[in-house]
Amino acid sequence: MPLTSPRRSGLTDQVIAQLRNQITSGEWPVGTRIPTEPELVEQLGVARNTIREAVRALAHNGLLDIRQGSGTYVLATSELAGVMHRRFASATPRDIAEVRSTLESSAARLAAQRRTARDLRQLDALLVRRKDAWATGDAERFVASDVAFHLAVVAASHNDVLIELYADLGHLLRDWLRDDVGDDLRPAHPMDHSGLVEAIRTGDGEFAGAEAARYPFHCAGDRGPRADDENGSRRQEQSAGDGSGKAQG
Q1: How far apart are alpha carbons 219 and 193 in whole angstroms?
Q2: Positions of the region Disordered (predicted)?
Q3: If you average pLDDT over residues 132-154, what whole number do you get?
Q4: Cα 75 from chain centroid?
Q5: Do residues 168 and 80 make contact, with C-beta atoms less than 8 angstroms apart?
Q6: Which residues contact residue 129 at a Cβ distance below 8 angstroms, ignoring those fewer than 6 apart?
Q7: Taking Cα atoms as reference points, which of 30, 48, 203 lies closest to residue 120?
Q8: How far apart are CA 26 and CA 9, in angstroms?
């Protein structure tokens, strides 16, 4: 949406509100550079000092990253996400994997109980997109599709608090996955997620939770918790029997 010239009272707060809205609405996505200070002055019709103060306030809250000589970039879509990004940026892969495993496992169990037909169509589409992204050799495309898939699993839980919490961690998880994958899709094979989707489809919460729990540890180079062999064999037999198993590129 276009920026508008604010009223003269409480200018800084109004500018902060408008800039925050550009971020939270997705108009300025995470990772993008926001307009320059002169451009914001022209669009908003306020003094440079007001723009500078507003940008610094949003940077302090973790939404923006001011890079001298390069510009100001969107770091997170909410204050909570910004705090998490700063707090967990130096966390070990194992710690991140444990947190992600806990959240995704709980979400998958709920998704198996609550998924809708629309959720399943979305998961099927994202599963194909993830496979196709790997086949292209484009690491950034694969990271984006993998993150989108896991966000969709969490969304299928229909727990608003869990969805928001996971979304606030999403940018940190994306950075972590990007580092793990590298520029040339270093892992020999991406982990096949078709078993998770099938478990959610059939309402098998136990298996869905176990499958989701182990994926983060795979990325972290750790075997981590796994579904027991009996469940794993049962799921493979079901996938083979109904033709629902999807080959992974």
Answers
A1: 13
A2: 218-249
A3: 87
A4: 13
A5: yes
A6: 145, 148, 149
A7: 203
A8: 27
Q: What is the H or E stretch that residue 217 is in?
A: helix 205-219
Rg (CA), the chain: 21
Three-state DSSP state, 225: coil
Tokens 């700063």 locate to: 86
Give percent above pLDDT 90 in the chain: 42
Distance of CA 4 to the CA centre of its chain: 30
Instruction: Give the per-residue pLDDT at 93.
Output: 76
Do the beta carbons of residue 157 and residue 111 sit within 8 Å?
A: yes
> Are 169 and 95 in contact, with CB atoms under 8 Å apart?
no
Element (H, E) at 74: strand 71-74
- Tell if the pTM clears 0.70, that is, is over it: no
Tokens of 57: 């306030």
Angle between helix axes 139-155 and 117-136 (nearest 10 degrees) is 170
Burial, 114: exposed, middle or buried (Cβ in 10 Å; 0-12, 13-18, 19+)?
middle
Count of CB atoms within 10 A of residue 72's CB? 20
- As a whole number, the mean pLDDT across the chain is 80
Over residues 147-196, the pLDDT tens digits come to 889 999 999 999 998 988 887 776 677 777 777 776 666 555 667 899 99
